[in-house]
Design brief:
Blueprint: H1 2-27, H2 36-46, H3 55-58, E1 63-65, E2 84-86, H4 98-101, E3 108-110, E4 130-132, E5 152-154, E6 174-176, E7 196-198, E8 217-219, E9 239-241, E10 261-263, E11 283-285, H5 295-304, E12 308-309
Parallel strand pairs: 1-2, 2-3, 3-4, 4-5, 5-6, 6-7, 7-8, 8-9, 9-10, 10-11, 11-12
């Protein structure tokens, strides 16, 4: 029994020794960042102009902006402690993005104006909280569906028609998706933390799915919206932009006690009397509507209440 204990202890010490040696070797491993622009930027951040870049060095990186002329990300997969990565205006269309998929600690990823068409590399970045994909050529956003920690998402100015992958992003607070081909907002109906939404320049014809959400700001300009009755079920809505739609009636606004600013330019509204019964209203835009003959009197009454009204002439 005594010999057996000595043998086990010896084996344990050997394993520990070689484990330490392996860790030392791993820490001193040279990391080859082949792209000259990326290499230079990494060295600048690490304040290491010369000498080999080791794994210890690379692990010191917490935030990195990819230089515009970068052509390869090889070696970046070892920067396991990166929390912020910015590709703004980098032409990433021909860059192998697989190294990014290995950066599991990423919380912020910005790829606006990066000329990308697919985003499969974000699929396993479970710690992402802030994702910017604006002004690209993305059509399919299914890779986002499991990113349950996302709070801020910008997918504006892409070629997206289907937002079903957003339906389970229950922590989402800010959503920017202007200038796409979106019609159906149903996937958003259970996102109770949604606060700010930008949905201008789409093909949205119904905002009913926004019922009972806690949205405070909504930009819905330049869509195909006719019915805004759901607003009575949006008790926290403070600012709503509805310019360039097909709205005829604003009766739902009568008695509204949350909206401070509403923009209704270029619709088909004739009766604006409900605006007189909005105690929190401070700013309204009405240019480009076929207002009826009572409108001048109503506008003067609003001005007396210190409501800012645009020049409708």
């Amino acid at each position: 029994m005594k010999k057996q204990k000595i043998f086990i202890t010896t084996i344990t010490l050997i394993v520990l020794f070689f484990g330490i040696q392996l860790n030392v070797l791993s820490a001193s491993k040279t990391i080859n960042i082949t792209d000259s622009y990326l290499n230079k930027e990494v060295r600048r951040l690490l304040n290491k102009k010369t000498g080999a870049l080791t794994q210890v060095d690379i692990l010191k990186l917490n935030a990195l902006g990819i230089p515009k002329n970068t052509k390869s990300l090889k070696g970046l997969e070892y920067a396991k402690n990166l929390e912020l990565l910015d590709f703004y205006q980098v032409n990433a269309s021909k860059i192998d993005m697989r190294p990014v998929s290995k950066l599991s600690k990423l919380q912020v990823l910005s790829m606006s104006e990066s000329n990308i068409t697919e985003i499969n590399f974000v699929r396993n970045l479970k710690n992402l909280q802030h994702l910017e994909l604006a002004d690209n050529k993305v059509k399919d956003i299914s890779a986002i569906s499991k990113l349950s920690n996302i709070r801020y998402l910008d997918i504006s100015k892409n070629e997206i028609g289907n937002i079903t992958p957003l339906k389970n992003l229950n922590k989402l607070e800010t959503l920017q998706m202007d200038s796409n081909y979106i019609i159906n907002l149903a996937p958003l109906m259970n996102l109770k933390r949604l606060d700010i939404v930008h949905m201008a320049d789409n093909k949205i014809d119904s905002i009913t799915p926004l019922k009972n959400l806690n949205i405070t700001f909504a930009n819905l300009e330049n869509n195909n919206i006719r019915d805004i009755s759901v607003i009575k079920f949006m008790p926290k809505l403070g600012v709503v932009l509805l310019n360039s739609n097909q709205i005829m009636s604003i009766n739902v606004l009568k008695g509204n006690k949350s909206i401070g600013k509403i923009e209704l330019k270029k619709n088909n509204i004739s009766d604006i009397s409900p605006l007189l019964y909005m105690p929190t209203l401070r700013d309204v835009l009405l240019y480009g509507n076929p207002l009826n003959q009572d409108s001048s009197m109503i506008l003067n009454a609003l001005k007396k209440k210190k409501v800012h009204v645009d020049d409708i002439n």
